[in-house]
Q: What sequence folds into this?
């Protein structure tokens, strides 16, 4: 299985997978901040990771990366993140 390059843009097929998964799961509410009904899917995934001090306390350690699909409100810019794994994108994109 190939490793997904997090700098690559999502294809229209990938975006449709996100849209379909969100609809299937009932995650179609309007923006939580301004109630605008239109959310747009960003062109690439985002990578979330945890950061914590190492045992000596003089540096930081990074946890595993969680790839996420990001939606943005077309009115106020509010960002919403959804796990790429839960949406079925990790298998489609070859993310391990």
A:
């Amino acid at each position: 299985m190939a490793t997904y390059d997090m700098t690559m843009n999502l294809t229209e097929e990938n975006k449709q997978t996100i849209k379909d998964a969100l609809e299937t799961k009932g995650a179609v509410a309007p923006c939580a901040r301004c109630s605008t009904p239109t959310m747009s899917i960003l062109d690439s995934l985002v990578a979330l990771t945890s950061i914590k001090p190492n045992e000596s306390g003089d540096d930081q350690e990074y946890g595993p990366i969680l790839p996420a699909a990001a939606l943005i409100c077309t009115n106020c810019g509010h960002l919403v993140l959804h796990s790429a794994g839960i949406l079925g994108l990790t298998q489609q994109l070859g993310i391990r």
